[in-house]
Design goal:
Elements: H1 2-17, H2 42-46, H3 53-56, E1 68-73, H4 74-79, E2 95-99, E3 102-105, E4 108-110, E5 113-115, E6 118-119, E7 134-141, E8 155-161, E9 169-177, E10 181-191, E11 198-210, E12 217-231, E13 235-249, E14 278-292, E15 298-322, E16 332-359, E17 362-384, E18 399-400
Parallel strand pairs: 5-8
Antiparallel strand pairs: 1-7, 2-3, 3-4, 5-6, 7-8, 9-10, 10-11, 11-12, 12-13, 13-14, 14-15, 15-16, 16-17, 16-18
């Protein structure tokens, strides 16, 4: 039986193989060509920076830099109407507000601040850096910030100041806003003579506003002047001087008390400081920068920067709530009066040499450099204790959390 089945199956297969085949004809639809569409992304062109020296201290394009670098150019600063660095924090990834102008960068408290690649913050203390004379803000994220010393694991922020331009430009700006805000600025830059080998920049800025916290206000003034000289075929010498004044009334500010759920215990405008409390800061900054290329393979730049800032503040430090009238609610904030002086005098310098060569089809860039930084800091303080608690009570009265009455305490009382 088995051989018969095999022959039958083979015969059926041969019969199927001899059946005629018919081709199927289909009609191909016509191809419709659509009009081209150009998509233009303004944010990708206007806010895009091709390089930033903060990463490698060279002019290496950002696309070739392995570190994480973010650049906030002047166009972004102007479009956001940002006038101080705290206005830009929302535009920087990996950064969060800490206190005053301080931040945490990638989870670490960020202390290292650079100006034109040099260490030293003229706003050191409790003042807030202003952006009037800043061309761009460069943020180097991660442990690569150790390139600038200080061992900052979170990274480093570098402020690049505005320098004299080759093209003449003038700008006058007026601003008005809520909280009685007003600002005025003037800038002028361009060549000082026809051949363009000497250029200048001058600028002045002033603003003022009332804060949303009771008793607070702020005023800032900035004067900035610089001149650039072309020396030889490749050399450029830039000299710059900046004067900064900042007056903050009703400061230093602490937070408003909250409950365990994070709800404010009183009005968000509440302030533990008196109307006579203040924080005044004055800073002076001088910069000299020289760059030249002794040959096609070498580039050299050197910079020297000096700054001095003085900060004086008188304020009432909140020391904790107590139940003064024994009604079961802690409504009385005890306070300590503090009078503090901070004087900083610093000098910073660096020298960098860049050598470029190639071996076959491979290009090499070699960086050599040295940095020097010295800071002399002086701190003086006077303190008057609270009159409400403690073994040694002082003359300073507290203030009610719900119905504050100001004017009962001051440094000269």
């Amino acid at each position: 039986m088995r051989p018969t089945l095999l022959v039958t199956a083979l015969a059926a297969a041969l019969a199927l193989h001899t059946l005629p085949a018919f081709a199927q004809h289909t009609t191909t639809p016509a191809v419709t060509e659509l009009d081209g569409v150009d998509v233009i992304g303004r944010a990708q062109t206007l806010y895009k920076s091709e390089d930033a020296a903060v990463a490698t201290r060279t002019d290496t394009p950002l696309a070739l830099v392995p570190q994480s670098v973010q650049v906030l150019p002047r166009e972004l600063i102007d479009d956001q109407a940002a006038r101080q660095i705290t206005d830009l924090y929302r535009s920087i990834s990996g950064i969060s507000f800490f206190s005053y102008a301080g931040v945490t960068l990638r989870g670490f408290r960020q202390e290292n601040v650079l100006y034109d690649g040099l260490r030293g913050d003229p706003y050191a203390g409790f003042s807030v850096p202003q952006l009037f004379n800043i061309e761009r803000v460069e943020v180097l994220k991660g442990p690569a910030g150790a390139l600038y010393g200080g061992g900052e694991p979170g990274g480093v922020i570098n402020y690049v100041t505005r320098k004299p331009a080759h093209q003449a430009a003038r700008r006058i700006e007026l601003q008005l806003g809520n909280q009685s805000f007003g600002a005025a600025s003037f800038e002028a830059t361009g060549p000082a003579r026809a051949d363009g080998r000497i250029r200048y920049r001058i600028g002045a800025y002033a603003d003022g506003e009332d804060g949303f916290r009771w008793n607070t206000d702020s005023q800032s003034q900035i004067g900035d002047a610089s001149v650039a000289f072309d020396l030889g075929d490749t050399g450029e010498l830039t000299l710059q001087y900046t004067d900064i004044t900042q007056n903050l009334g009703g400061n230093r500010l602490r937070g408003v008390p909250v409950d365990n759920a994070g709800n404010f215990l009183t009005d968000r405008r509440w302030n533990h400081n008196e109307p006579t409390d203040f924080l005044d800061m004055r800073a002076k900054v001088a910069l000299a920068q020289y760059r030249f290329a002794p040959s096609s393979a070498w580039e050299v730049d050197m910079a020297l920067r000096w700054f001095k800032n003085q900060e004086h503040q008188i304020y009432h430090e909140p020391m904790g709530l107590i139940d003064r009238d024994r009604d079961g609610t802690a409504e009385w904030m005890t306070r300590q009066l503090r009078n503090q002086y901070r004087d900083n005098d610093a000098i910073s310098s660096n020298v960098n040499a860049i050598f470029r060569t190639s071996t076959g089809a491979i290009d090499h860039t070699l960086l050599m450099g040295a940095d020097y930084y010295r800071l002399d800091a002086d701190f003086r303080a006077q303190t008057a204790n609270t009159a409400d608690t403690g073994r040694v009570r002082g003359p300073v009265p507290g203030i009610n959390l719900f119905n504050p009455v100001y004017g009962r305490s001051g440094f000269y009382d």
